[in-house]
Design a protein that fits this description.
The chain is of the alpha/beta class. The chain contains 33 helices and 23 strands. The chain is 45% helix and 15% strand. The termini are far apart. Bound molecules: adenosine-5'-triphosphate. It binds a DNA duplex through helix 5, helix 11 and helix 21.
DNA sequence: GGCACGAATTTTTTT
DNA sequence: AATTCGTGCC
């Protein structure tokens, strides 16, 4: 087995250990995933049948990569029979074949978060509860957490702790909503994401013979990113491996970042106690990053109290320090990052695809995207609104779902009046109420309007009947035509396509293109399946589509583009160059994590994950002001920057630090454009004028600058970050402009000052610009000139 | 029932 | 800024 040479001693030991449970716990970039991959290859060589190996990854993409890597080692003919995938995708497969035993059909629909949310909303409405108190999002969260901990509605109701918590939170009826939600899902033959895990547990608990069958089928179980598994996942694995304990999990407690999804770090911390035969393997050598990056990351994570200390070292070269850049605004941050990207590309050392820009929240991607486009930088955004979450796509899919499962109420609600065909909310509600009254599906009611006494006029009744007939016709074809042929017919017959031709707005065209892209994707799906000798019916497509994510729609993965994604989405990936942007208090760490030490530590782990994605170069940026929810906020640098030992950081001399004399052009700029001195940042959203510190645009690139030593380091280290930055801002002289006077604005022209008031720490003025309207402007930022 | 406009609201992260 | 919600009118 030559491939074992590609491992170091510790890795090889972990791979070769086959007699019992093993845990590989090690820091980032130490080759944990590699161990798992090679271990599978090793097991295959040792004679394990590929179909007897179950490997769980965190994403579909990771699964694909692992499978293809294994195929490289042992050949595609063998690798193709492996069970490699996410918990959700593999256990949905098992659930489909065993569905009958737990009261579902093999065709069950998978409700995505939007579907659950909509169902919860309608339940809350049905119970006449106030949706301001019973916020659907909150309820959904509670239900999800319950499911992840295997608490069924009954168990929920009899759980003291949960019930009192709900009572105190003034939402005592969550338990009832949960119960109805569960019933509704079952009635609609639907499972949500959490059900895929919960129902698997129920299946294994209530049907020992089924559990036994899968126990015998899977002789070896491997789990990647084990630190982010939840209780439901833990128990599935535990049950399947009971007896033989041939299980190998790998992970890093310092990279546990999904607690909001129920991930329980105890799974990995308690592994030794849960498995008698457990052997623990530690890997210490990092193969990914330079010394500077590894050390910086180590010094950061060292600030967490709750963690298993780990040694991590690297033999790679020292590399450069992590560059920390302070910018005026989110806008400038994006501009500067795009300039750095261009520099890196032009240096010919890096391609665009070597570079990633990571952020805490999806909302941050917008400015970045704009600036990348402006700078001509090709990029690809992952996450956020994915292709399959677009309205028009969800609409088409809703038709598909309804055709395959007429009980799918959420799908019905979605497409019954899309495009509009005169069946409005009132009618839909009547149908749903009548259905609930008789304990049948809405589909059933629509099939016999007279029998169920549906209180609608004959015109409306006809519309309902027509709609039902149309869907029925598709149903007759669902086992005859392949997915492509059927969907093609659906978009034409239902009027979905025609609807995009009613006007020629860019929105309509984009909707049409998206629908066409979907149809294309389905065609490719059919071709692929047919080539593989498998069936390619609509149900087959649906079974796969519900679990697809953004990263899976990535067709040409090796296009030369910069990657933009959240830090969460970057877990497990690596890039030569990484920019971690928006390192500010309230954003990263998120304001919601601030009052809990536990959550704060998770935010720190998240930052650790971000930095450890970098192989060679890492940049950290933060802005002093940022638009959030439509308003400008002044923000402070993240406390996490101080958590990194400053000897690994480089704060280049920048013009962007106020109060320093090398503050280029400030006076000139301010006087020319605002009429006020020290008015602060020049960047506003309404301004198209861009301004770069001279050095960055006209001289050599900043990242070759000599590190700026002591002075700024001390500033960041010894004083709270707030004082370094905030003082400057707070001391900014803000003159009050006289009410009633006329002022001139760069964009709006001349206007009259109506009032001046305080908005937080900032003065804002209401100014009437005549036909441009009355605007409310923050004086710190508006470029105003007082006219005499 | 459908549409348009104005008001109100906004927690981060995702399978 | 962006999206959702409510209202009012045809
Ligand atoms: N023995 C080795 N020799 C050479 N390269 C290695 C070796 N082990 C791992 N690598 C490389 O190191 C990098 C990180 O490996 P891998 O992704 O498996 O680490 P990991 O521990 O799973 O990381 P993370 O925890 O960040 O997901 C990969 O590029 C991998 O190819």
């Amino acid at each position: 087995m030559r491939f074992l040479d590609e491992l170091n001693d510790n890795q090889r030991k972990a791979v070769e250990f086959v007699d019992g449970a093993s845990l590989v716990i090690a820091g980032a970039g130490s080759g944990k995933t590699r161990v798992l991959t090679y271990k599978i290859a090793y097991l295959l060589k040792k004679g394990f049948a590929p179909s007897s190996i179950l490997a769980l990854t965190f994403t579909n993409k990771a699964a694909r990569e692992m499978k293809s890597r294994i195929a490289d080692l042992v050949g595609e003919r063998i690798a193709r029979y492996l069970w490699v995938g996410t918990f959700h995708s593999l256990f949905s497969r098992i659930l489909r074949s065993e569905a009958g035993t737990i009261g579902f059909t093999g065709n069950f629909t998978i409700y995505d978060t939007a579907d659950s949310n909509s169902l919860i909303k309608s339940i809350i409405k049905g119970l006449n509860l106030d949706d301001k108190i019973y916020r659907p999002g909150l309820v959904q969260n509670r239900i999800s957490t319950a499911k992840n901990n295997l608490i069924t509605p009954g168990a929920y109701a009899s759980n003291e702790e949960l019930m009192t918590a709900d009572k105190h939170a003034r939402v005592p009826r969550i338990q009832e909503i949960y119960r109805i939600y569960t019933e509704k899902c079952k009635q609609s033959d639907a499972m949500d994401f959490d059900d895929l895990l919960l129902q698997t547990n129920i299946l294994f608990r209530d049907h020992p013979e089924v559990l036994q069958k899968y126990r015998e089928r899977f002789n070896y179980i491997l789990v990647d990113e084990y630190q982010d598994t939840n209780y439901a996942q833990y128990l599935i694995i535990r049950k399947l491996s009971e007896g033989h304990e041939r299980i190998c999990v790998v992970g890093d407690d310092s990279q546990s970042i999904y607690s909001f999804r129920g991930a329980n770090i105890d799974n990995i911390l308690q592994f030794k106690n849960n498995y008698q035969s457990a052997q623990v393997f530690k890997l210490e050598r990092n193969y990914r990053s330079t010394k500077m990056i590894v050390n910086a990351a180590n010094s950061l994570i060292d600030k967490n109290k709750n963690r298993i200390p780990k040694k991590v070292y690297t033999e790679k070269q020292d590399g450069e320090k992590i560059k920390v850049l302070q910018l005026y605004s989110d806008f400038e941050e994006a501009t500067v990052v795009s300039e750095y990207v261009i520099e890196l590309k032009e240096s010919e050392e890096y391609a665009y695809k070597d570079i990633a820009i990571l952020y805490r929240t999806n909302a941050q991607s917008r400015v970045l995207e704009d600036q990348m486009r402006k700078g001509g930088v090709p990029y690809r955004i992952y996450g956020g609104l994915s292709f399959y979450q677009r309205k028009e796509i969800k609409d088409v899919i809703a038709y598909c779902r309804l055709i395959c499962n007429p009980a799918d109420e959420e799908a019905l609600k979605r497409c019954i009046n899309t495009p509009t065909r005169g069946i409005g909310d009132t009618t839909v509600n009547k149908v749903l109420e009548t259905a609930a009254l008789h304990g049948v599906t809405a589909w059933e009611v629509m099939g016999d309007i007279l029998k169920y006494n549906l209180p609608v006029h004959s015109g409306t009744a006809n519309k309902l009947t027509d709609f039902r007939e149309m869907i029925s016709t598709f149903m007759e074809q669902k086992d005859v035509l392949d997915a492509y042929q059927l969907v093609d017919s659906v978009i034409k017959t239902t009027g979905m396509i025609r609807d995009t031709y009613t006007d020629n707005s860019p929105e309509s065209i984009s909707r049409r293109e998206n629908i066409e892209e979907l149809v294309n994707a389905i065609r490719e799906f059919c071709e692929m399946k047919t080539d593989a000798g498998e069936q390619a019916l609509l149900v087959d497509f649906l079974a796969e589509v519900s679990l697809l994510t953004d990263q899976d729609t990535d067709k040409n993965g090796d296009e030369d583009k910069v990657t933009l994604m959240t830090v969460h989405a970057a877990k497990g990936l690596e890039f030569k160059v990484v920019f971690v942007v928006g390192m500010e208090e309230e954003l990263f760490p998120s304001s919601f994590s601030m009052d809990s030490a536990r959550e704060l530590e998770e935010e720190r782990r998240l930052f650790y994950v971000a930095i450890t994605r970098a192989e060679e170069r890492c940049f950290i940026t933060y802005a002093k002001s940022r638009f959030r929810n439509g308003e400008l906020n002044f923000v402070n640098p993240s406390r996490f920057i101080k958590d990194i030992d400053s000897k690994y950081l480089d704060f280049p001399v920048q013009q962007t630090i106020p109060s320093s004399s090398n503050f280029v052009d400030e006076d000139e700029e301010i006087e020319n454009f605002s009429g006020f001195r020290n008015a602060g940042t020049r960047f506003t959203r309404t301004s198209t004028r861009t301004y770069y510190p001279k050095q960055q645009t006209q001289e050599k690139p900043v990242y070759y600058d000599t590190p700026n030593p002591a002075r700024k380091l001390t500033r960041l280290k010894n004083s709270p970050a707030t004082s370094a930055i905030n003082t400057d801002l707070n001391e900014t002289f803000v003159p009050t402009i006289p009410v009633g006077k006329f002022v001139k604005h760069a964009m709006f022209g001349v206007g009259k000052v109506l009032s001046v008031s305080m908005s937080g720490a900032n003065e804002k003025a209401e100014i009437d610009f005549g036909e441009k309207g009355v605007k409310t402007l923050l004086l710190k930022f508006a470029k105003l000139e007082v006219l005499d």
